[in-house]
Specification:
Blueprint: E1 5-11, E2 29-34, E3 37-40, H1 47-57, E4 62-67, E5 73-78, E6 83-88, E7 96-97, E8 105-110, E9 119-124, E10 133-138, E11 144-146, E12 154-159, E13 165-170, E14 179-184, E15 191-194, E16 199-205, E17 211-219, E18 222-229, E19 235-237, E20 247-252, E21 259-263, E22 276-281, E23 286-289, E24 297-303, E25 309-316, E26 319-326, E27 342-348, E28 354-361, E29 364-372, E30 377-380, E31 398-408, E32 411-420, E33 431-437, H2 451-458, E34 463-467, H3 477-480, H4 490-503, E35 508-518, H5 520-532, E36 538-542, H6 548-554, H7 557-567, H8 573-582, E37 594-600, H9 608-620, E38 625-630, H10 640-659
Parallel strand pairs: 33-34, 33-35, 35-36, 36-37, 37-38
Antiparallel strand pairs: 1-2, 2-3, 3-38, 4-5, 5-6, 6-7, 8-9, 9-10, 10-11, 12-13, 13-14, 14-15, 16-17, 17-18, 18-19, 20-21, 21-22, 22-23, 24-25, 25-26, 27-28, 28-29, 29-30, 31-32, 32-34
Helix pairs in contact: 1-10, 4-5, 6-7
Length: about 675
């Protein structure tokens, strides 16, 4: 045997009992180990498919990560296996790679312009375990220094405005709570600053560095803001109107007294559906809602170092739009017309005169642009490769809405979905369909660049539907809470309603429908197969939950209470009974569709045991299952070679079990 192929074994599972009512004989399992990959029952990938996929798998994007001295910027992009830090010093200039790790960088935080520091902090884990360690990269010496303990989970790095102080979140104290730590950046000893239990994040230092805005996160619908005195550690929690609300961005105003923040707190006692941008000055009592006329969520905010501008984005039905206000007047600033898509990773230049943004759309991967605020000039700084493909052939999705089982104000509730339809479909041809379900569950599917959707449409003639079922963010507080706790399966019913909608579309083949999803979306795949195996031909479950009870018991300890706030507490008998009723593991006999399960061995969120137990259970009922396990990945796949193999295996799976006639 070759070193790569350490084993290729054919093993028969234990024969089922022949007594009446026994499970059918288990199917044989072909197991292959290649490096860090374990594959079971996955056929050899045809070279022609690998060649056909190659260009789609060599698309890449670039995202803005911060400004450095001398007018340069940091970006994150991938040229080899993983996304690393690069520096670009002029529009369309050379991308100078700075880090060269086998693991991707999780975060990049540039030192502030007002400091004497020239470099950035980055986070990196091992094999996707998400126990990130923070490191300092000095741009002058190119030396790297470990800032954290090498063991705990560290995230959310934040400099004070002068660069003298540095804060971050860490589980170093007890492994369960995410505390806030702080140190003098130039050689200071790290110390805990907030240790009140739960998950805390540093948000912004005051201009003088003496106070730190902080946030305690409980769930997507509940968080609590406060401020802590950095020297004494005295914590002051701010009152929350209505007692419970969600907060996002939180920044000191340039005067260091007032604050800007994003929240869905009630206004004048009236409940709010969406997150709005707000201003509050505790000294004068002045309060202002700056986006009251926008019936959508505000996603993010940034304030320039010179205190003259504030930038924020709104999420309008999955399209992120950019806005800039002049400070302190709050008058809108004219901006150039931007392409329709997503605007994220916003950052002002050190002099405050330019604004960098990352732009992405369904037909263009992420790239960095810079807006000159004085003359509304838009300049492209990066142009990422699309694998030699013709971008004009990329398919842009349309937004559709389909009715579901319940009503709102006497009318059927509708669910939004993005519909990728292959172009130039011959008359009379019915298209196979893949339903792609997001994770979270509080996430939101967005019309971002998706090379897999493009390959399905342009090469395999498969349509993709990307729904935002109830429980998704971006559509208001009520919609977000429609799948909580005992209402969990209502989101699965939305998939049933989508199957009904597909049956009414003349161009779609209701007999050839597949489901695909990761994390909570993986649960949705399994639950959809559990309920609708007679209507779904095949499903791909990536790092999915197969039983909520075992998931909550085995997820990393720092995550348990956070997930219980969303799913319910498995230690409560009534909730445990709900989990037993709705979990696919307990109803594996109802999964009769073809199934492909993919998992990372180091996943701290959804342990690999969730995958292995559903694979075993479905196979125990005589159903063949493809199974893929990577020992160097965690919650999803981030290394290019791993992603490439998984994508190729998925396309082969669709070819054999969705597109073709065989079931």
């Amino acid at each position: 045997m070759t070193p790569l192929h350490r084993s290729l074994a054919l093993s028969l599972l234990t024969m089922a009992s022949l007594s009446a009512g026994a499970a059918p004989p288990a199917t044989p399992v072909v197991r292959e180990e290649v490096g860090n990959r374990i594959s079971e029952n996955i056929p050899a990938i045809p070279p022609a498919l690998v060649e056909q996929l190659n260009r789609y798998q060599n698309t890449r994007g670039a995202t803005f990560a911060g400004w450095t001295s001398g007018g340069c910027m940091l970006i994150s992009t991938r040229f080899a296996e993983t996304a690393q830090a690069h520096r670009v010093c002029q529009p369309m200039g050379m991308r100078e790679q700075l880090t060269f790790y086998p693991e991707p960088l999780a975060t990049i935080e540039a030192a502030p312009a007002a400091s004497k520091l020239d470099g950035f902090v980055f986070g990196k884990d091992v094999g996707g375990n998400e126990f990130w360690q923070l490191h300092w990269f000095d741009l002058q010496t190119r030396a790297t220094t470990l800032l954290t303990d090498g063991k705990a989970r560290n995230q959310s790095p934040l400099f004070s405005h002068d660069g003298k102080r540095f804060a971050w979140s860490s589980t170093a104290r007890n492994g369960k709570d995410t505390d806030i730590w702080v140190k003098d950046f130039a050689g200071g000893t790290p110390r805990t600053l907030v240790t009140d239990g739960g998950q805390w994040t540093p948000m912004d230092f005051s201009p003088d560095g003496k106070r730190l805005l902080v946030m305690k996160y409980v769930s997507a619908a509940e968080s609590y803001p406060g401020a802590v005195e950095v020297d004494s550690g005295k914590l002051e929690m701010f009152p929350v109107d209505g007692g419970k609300a969600s907060f996002n961005g939180f920044r000191f105003a340039p005067d260091g007294r007032a604050v800007y923040f994003i929240s869905d707190e009630p206004i004048d006692g009236k409940a709010q559906e969406f997150h709005t941008l707000r201003y509050h000055d505790p000294a004068t009592g002045k309060f202002e809602v700056l986006t009251n006329a926008t019936p959508w969520d505000v996603e993010d905010l940034e304030i320039s170092d010179d205190g003259k501008h504030l930038a924020y984005t709104t999420n309008e039905g999955g399209i992120y739009k950019l806005h800039v206000l002049a400070l302190p007047s709050h008058n809108p600033v004219k901006l150039p017309e931007l392409p329709v898509g997503l605007v994220v990773n916003v950052g002002f230049s050190p002099d405050g005169k330019r604004l960098a943004v990352t732009m992405n759309s369904a037909t263009s991967p992420s790239d960095v642009y810079v807006i000159e605020l004085g003359n509304t000039k838009l300049t492209r700084w990066t142009q990422s490769e699309v694998g030699g493909l013709d971008p004009s052939k990329f398919v842009a999705p349309t937004l559709v809405h389909f009715p579901t089982f319940d009503q709102v104000d006497g009318k059927p509730r509708t669910i939004p979905a993005f519909y990728y339809r292959p172009a130039n479909v011959p008359a009379g041809r019915k298209l196979p369909v893949v339903i792609n379900i997001h994770g979270g569950p509080e996430g939101q599917s967005l019309p971002t660049f998706n090379p897999t959707a493009q390959f399905l449409a342009n090469e395999l003639g498969v349509a993709m539907l990307v729904p935002n079922v109830r429980g998704s963010s971006g559509y208001g507080k009520t919609y977000l809470g429609l799948d909580n706790a005992e209402k969990r399966e209502d989101s699965v019913k939305d998939i049933g309603a989508l199957l009904d909608w597909i049956a009414l579309q003349p161009e779609l083949d209701v007999k050839r429908v597949g489901v695909y999803g990761g994390s909570y979306g993986g649960y949705m795949v399994l639950a959809s197969l559990m309920h609708y195996s007679d209507r779904i031909r095949a499903g791909v479950d990536i790092v999915g939950i197969s039983h909520f009870g075992t998931f909550l018991k085995n997820t990393e300890v720092y995550r348990q209470d956070l997930r219980r706030a969303e799913y319910g507490d498995e230690r409560v008998p009534e909730m445990a009974a709900v989990f037993d009723r709705i979990s696919p593991l307990n109803h594996a006999d109802r999964i009769r569709s073809r199934l492909f399960v993919a998992q990372g061995r180091n996943d701290p969120r959804v342990p690999y045991t969730e995958a292995e137990q559903i694979v075993k259970a479905v196979r125990g009922n005589g159903q063949p299952v493809w199974y893929l396990l990577y020992s160097d990945e965690g919650h999803g796949f981030r290394k290019k070679s791993n992603v490439d193999y998984f994508t190729a295996a998925t396309m082969l799976f669709w070819q054999q079990h969705l597109i073709g006639d065989a079931r």
